[in-house]
Specification:
With 435 residues, this protein is α/β, with parallel strands linked by helices. The chain has a single domain (2-287, 361-430), classed as TIM Barrel (Alpha-Beta Barrel). It has helices at 31-43, 66-71, 81-91, 108-121, 136-141, 150-168, 226-235, 246-262, 284-296, 300-311, 333-343, 350-360, 370-382, 398-413, 426-430; strands at residues 2-7, 48-51, 96-102, 126-131, 176-179, 184-186, 196-197, 202-203, 218-221, 238-241, 271-280, 365-368, 388-391. Bound molecules: flavin mononucleotide.
């Protein structure tokens, strides 16, 4: 089983209640906050920690930033994760370090440099969550062009990856000589120009950084539409998914296996990690109390503000009592489909959707004692629905403290999770082939 700790460098994670919890540390601007979490997760032998990211405040709901900024939706504050991971690299030794960067609002050369640097300074622990971005707000921060259509974003993403991979491969493994005696730094014959000229990008290369310990960062992707899955099948080594039920997890994993084979890879070439939000108590009643306290802190409007940003649509003209079936998306396709799947057969209103989104963006909740939570995780993995989990906290740092202190030992005792790191690189934790 593989484990990833989910974070956003700001007040809100999937849970929009997180900063309102009286026990929550509000020092989410301080490095110490993230370093503490990194050390904790490393103690729990997590494969990696990961920062989600987006590039704009949310102002789709009501065509204004009023709701999102007033109540702190998912986009109200996001600091840049890459510098934070650079600092964390200095005080950790094993845990993988993942950051999100967008192929729609960046240049392949920048990304190739950033992750080659992170991979060098962390001795092979870097991972990149490749996103294509979701909404017009992000487009407006990077120029006056409208946000590209959903499939165009993925087409551009494909070419972006070709260029980035080309740049990471522009130094052969044995190009760096560091021959002090003869004053030979590197073999120029083993450093190659790329000379890429395509529809979206031109990049001559080579990269100005020698090949990093992992060759390139571990590639993570989280597209859940048909086009998104095809993109993930081509490039990813880890796939994040947010599926609200075991049935949908199984269907997702099986779709991914088919897409991987269609892309000419083996059906298990990419590890599928499902997002979960655990609530852990000494008793089930205590865990349920924690969940109820958490949920009582969520205002449905704040969830709707995030949902509107994900869907790149304004829902404010609908009454909160109308059905969720009214909602359409021009941003993320998969998320809205998952939300409607929760509604299937039930009457879920737009206010309910806001509540569900604000409470955890549909992350399935595992509520109970450490043993209950470990058992539910084991069931998901042993039934073949997932290779592991993205653990999304409802309380910080409490969820990770409970998880590392109480759930991880049960998983270890049952032989489902490592007791020690075996290798030094993230690729080795994940059992991926070296590049
Ligand atoms: C666990 C998880 C984490 C994600 N993190 C980000 C993120 O940090 N930034 C972002 O723009 N999108 C993020 N996404 C969204 C996906 O990258 C993708 O854009 C979204 O699922 C829509 O893809 P689709 O249109 O193919 O469904 C995440 C999705 C999941 C499931």
């Amino acid at each position: 089983m593989h484990l990833c700790g989910f974070l956003i460098a700001g007040p809100v994670v999937h849970s929009h209640a997180i900063w309102r919890n009286p026990k929550h540390r509000t020092d989410f601007f301080s490095l110490g906050h993230y370093v503490g979490i990194a050390r904790l997760l490393e103690r729990g032998k997590f494969d990696f920690m990961f920062f989600a990211d987006r590039l704009a405040i949310a102002d789709r709901y009501g065509a204004s930033h009023e709701t999102g900024i007033r109540h702190a939706d998912q986009d109200a504050t996001r600091m840049d994760p890459v510098p934070i991971l650079g600092a964390i690299a200095a005080v950790t030794n094993r845990i993988g370090l993942g950051a999100t960067r967008s192929t729609t609002y960046d240049a392949p050369y920048n990304i190739a440099r950033e992750f080659a640097t992170l991979d060098h300074i962390s001795a092979g622990r870097a991972a990149w969550n490749v996103v294509t971005s979701m909404n017009d707000g992000e487009a407006l921060n990077y120029g006056d062009v409208p946000h590209l259509g959903h499939d165009d974003r993925y087409d551009r993403g494909d070419e972006f990856m070709e260029v980035a991979f080309g740049l990471w491969d522009s130094w052969d493994k044995d190009a760096l000589l560091l021959d002090r005696e003869n004053g030979i730094y590197a073999d120029p014959g083993k450093v190659h120009y790329l000379n890429h000229k395509g529809r979206w990008f031109q990049s001559r290369g080579p990269l100005n950084i020698p090949r990093s310990p992992q060759g390139r960062p571990v590639i993570i992707q989280a597209g859940s539409s048909g086009r998104g899955k095809a993109f993930a099948a081509r490039w990813s080594e880890v796939i994040f998914a947010l599926q609200p039920s075991l049935e949908r997890m199984r269907a997702f994993k099986s779709d991914v296996a088919t897409a991987l084979v269609d892309a000419g890879r083996t059906p298990d070439a990419s590890k599928v990690l499902m997002a979960i939000m655990p609530f852990i108590g000494e008793s089930r009643a205590e865990a349920e109390e924690k969940r109820d306290l958490h949920d009582s802190l969520v205002n449905p409007l704040v969830g709707l503000s995030t949902l509107a940003a994900h869907a790149n649509a304004d829902f404010s003209h609908f009454s909160l009592e109308e059905s969720v079936e009214q909602l359409q998306s021009s941003g993320s396709q998969g998320n809205l489909a998952a939300l409607k799947s929760i509604a299937a057969g039930k009457s879920i209103t737009i206010a309910d959707a806001g509540r569900i989104y604000g409470q955890g963006v549909m992350c399935p909740r595992l509520v109970g004692t450490a043993k209950d939570v470990a058992e539910q995780m084991a069931e998901i993995v042993t039934s073949g629905a997932s290779d592991g989990f993205v653990v999304s906290p409802a309380f910080l740092p409490d969820t990770f403290e409970d998880f590392v202190g109480k759930v991880v030992p049960v998983l270890q005792k049952n032989g489902l999770f490592r007791s020690e790191y075996e290798g030094g690189t993230l690729r080795s934790h994940l059992g991926l082939v070296a590049t």
